[in-house]
Design brief:
two-stranded antiparallel ribbon, about 75% helix
């Protein structure tokens, strides 16, 4: 429940609704807006790298996770609620303050992930952990899609289309002129988060409190991290894979963070189109997760990850050639082919199809990567390597936003800003070719 009610922040605020609104209507310049969001994620990423590993190790020594998680969720809810005051043109909440909130949320969601994952075994036990983990991811995706659909029919479509079964105007009296439907997703996500954490706090058992002080826990946690690295030495293929994953995961994360901003900017899509885009791509991401399992079994996770990253490079490269009046870098001057509320032109349909390809590859790459680690790491050291796996996901999370910020400033367009993402994916893919193991399991 906690994950299902946390993930809508990523979908509604960070990717498809609020962040694109911030870039296009608060900042008013997609290029400058993308640069600001990249800077927020860069500084947030630096703070995560400097604090999260040691904090996680120290909390392991202290014991209880739920009090820390409650504080993190409370801060996340406050940050999301404040987004309501970010009005068009920079009125209300200053642009700088909104950027600081984005950076703070980058840090808080990393902390949430760390603390939430640490409660998996107390909640489900060793035997039930895999099923609970899968259910949490599925629930997060499903709940996010339901919220997107709810926002679409309650706030975005009313007043835009003349359908008898729709409200005549957005519910709650929200006024599109002042971008209130876009801004409302912040408080909406905040309320959902606060209610979603209650069952976890009440029902899930926590770890026992140790006698260690915070200072003792920090010192012992630093020793635990050093031991983790010492135990991993000598396992070439597993470590090579973790280096590759560290780099291409930065690319995957950058696509998640900036994909919605890019779509809103280059396609000039507003809330209605971004909601439709988010719903379609969320469904495609579910397909990607299911596809990953089939590929892992059919060809082995090593080849599966290579194909998924390779496919992502192709789709993401083609996306950079699209625009409102452009199809793969060629000018387009056609007319709409249907009289609908959204996606009425050929560039929009092609962009949507390419976006689905990106979503399938991103989702499947995340899933297959976890499987690949179980095949290349020694069975008796899986705990060690999954610890490093978690660290590798955050160790360079500042790199993608830094490169996107630099390239957007230097190139002057959103497309140039996304070019380094393809470079990170290609670098990670190249390193994967030096990883041995991870083949298809033999049956019979």
């Amino acid at each position: 429940m906690a994950q299902a009610t946390r993930d809508p922040y990523v979908i509604l605020v960070a990717i498809y609704i609020f962040a694109p609104y911030f870039v296009t209507r608060v900042v008013g310049d997609p290029v400058a807006g993308q640069t600001l969001v990249a800077a927020a994620n860069k500084w947030g990423g630096w703070l995560v790298v400097l604090t999260a590993p040691l904090l996680g190790a120290a909390i392991d020594r202290l014991g209880p996770r739920k009090p820390w998680l409650a504080v993190v969720v409370g801060l996340m809810a406050l940050c999301n609620a404040l987004l309501w005051f970010a009005r068009p043109g920079g009125a209300g909440l200053p642009i700088t303050a909104t950027v600081v909130i984005f950076g703070a949320l980058t840090v808080l969601i990393a902390y949430h992930e760390m603390l939430h994952n640490a409660l998996l075994l107390p909640a489900a036990g060793v035997r039930g952990a895999a099923g609970a983990s899968g259910l949490a991811f599925a629930g997060g995706n499903a709940f996010s899609v339901l919220m997107l659909v709810g926002v679409l029919f309650a706030f975005a479509l009313p007043g835009k289309v003349d359908w008898s079964w729709l409200p005549a105007a957005p519910l709650l009296g929200l006024d599109p002129v002042y971008a209130e439907p876009d801004r409302f997703v912040g408080p909406l996500v905040a309320v959902v988060m606060l209610f979603g954490i209650i069952p976890l706090l009440k029902l899930v058992p926590d770890m026992a409190r140790s006698r260690a002080t915070v200072a003792d826990a920090l010192r012992a946690g630093a020793g635990d991290l050093a031991q983790l690295f010492r135990e991993a030495r000598g396992h070439r293929d597993a470590l090579t894979f973790l280096v590759a994953r560290m780099i291409y995961t930065d690319g995957l994360t950058a696509i998640l963070v900036f994909g919605g901003l890019y779509a809103a900017g280059v396609m000039r899509w507003a809330t209605l189109e971004m909601l439709g885009y988010g719903i379609v791509l969320s469904v495609a991401a579910v397909v990607g997760g299911l596809l990953a399992g089939r590929l892992d079994n059919a060809i082995g996770p090593r080849l599966a990850v290579r194909l998924e990253i390779g496919g992502l490079i192709v789709f993401q490269s083609l996306v950079l050639g699209m625009g409102r009046e452009t199809i793969l870098w060629a000018p387009w001057t056609g007319t709409p082919f249907w009289d609908g509320p959204m996606f009425t032109t050929r560039p929009e349909i092609i962009f949507l199809a390419l976006g689905c390809g990106v979503a399938v590859c991103v989702s499947s790459a995340y899933a297959s990567s976890r499987t690949l680690l179980t095949r290349v790491a020694p069975a008796d050291k899986l705990g060690v390597f999954f610890g490093l796996y978690a660290l590798s996901g955050s160790a360079t999370m500042w790199l993608g936003p830094t490169l996107v910020e630099f390239a957007t400033r230097q190139g002057g367009t959103q497309a140039w800003g996304m070019v380094p993402v393809i470079g990170m994916l290609a670098t990670g893919l190249a390193i994967l070719f030096f990883v041995r193991g991870g083949n298809r399991l033999q049956t019979g």
